[in-house]
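Feature request disguised as a bug report, sorry. It would help if multi-protein outputs had a clear separator. Right now it looks like this:
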Amino acid sequence: MDQEKAPQTENSAIEKLPGGVKLSWGLVKQPQRGPKRELSIAQIVETAVNLADAEGLAAVSMGRVASELGFTAMSLYRYIPSKGDLLLLMQDSVSNIAIPPVEEEMDWRDSMRDFVRSSMNVFREHPWFGDIPITSSPVTPNLLRIVDWGLRCMRNFALNDYEKMSIVVLLSSFARSSGIIQRDVDRVKAAGSGQEQNGDPDYGSALKMLVTEDRYPDLYPVLVSGAYTEENQEFDSAASDFEFGLERILDGVECYLDEKSR
């Protein structure tokens, strides 16, 4: 009896998945009725992604996407049940990133560097990606491919599954936060609103007048050195912050591995 019930339980679990998740796995049939079946889920998602890339996430609505395609919003709902489902499909679509082939001799630190940099670049190439709130663990095909890649970096680690997943979450979280910061820096540069342009304030000079040693005893010497406002070329932009942070995370993983091996 238990064996007969198992498939029904699994099917029930799949049926309860959100519409967008089922669509991402190809578990929903394309509608047989509609505007001469001239639309497809792939077309709708591609159009929405292009719109978000060009104008931001706020520009994406079922009506606007339908208009770009020359159809009515009702036509889109026959393919994708809601805007939430569309956003989920957009996320999965741009997560279809190139994953390098397995190289048995590749150093695990190099593998993790590639994993984090590629994950971070999604936020830079598609600035709207980080504006969509996280509502669950990755459940769509392309996002799971990225998780699988992260775990592959630790294929030979003598760690349990919980430890490996925790490291993937750590690396992914760092990639997300760094990607959003770099995305914002990219936006500032693209807008031409650097400190030297358009009469923008010289924050470094102003802060050196406002920040006193007695009130900010630990910040003051950092500010004077030029590191806080990146006046000192030794401290070169958010890119260096990212590289420094990534290396310290990898150092931490290495120390943890050494500790576990004792």
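(second protein starts here, but nothing in the output says so)
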Amino acid sequence: MLGLMLTRKEAQEIEYLLKKELEELLLDLEDERIEGLVRRAMEERYKLIFRLYGRFVPPHELSKYVRTSFKQG
């Protein structure tokens, strides 16, 4: 485990960057043309960024980025 001390402004900037990345990933994961290894890599990235974003925001903010549909198959 690593520790990190940030100023309020730095924390806000990281929060913003994570939020934008989650928005992009959610949009891309809805694209049916993306499949296979690329999709799995994107899903792993989404999980990692989602957990990291959860360290910066309250639960009601985090819930906005929960994936609502998972394609089986």
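Even a blank line would do. Unrelated, but nice: The mean pLDDT is 91.
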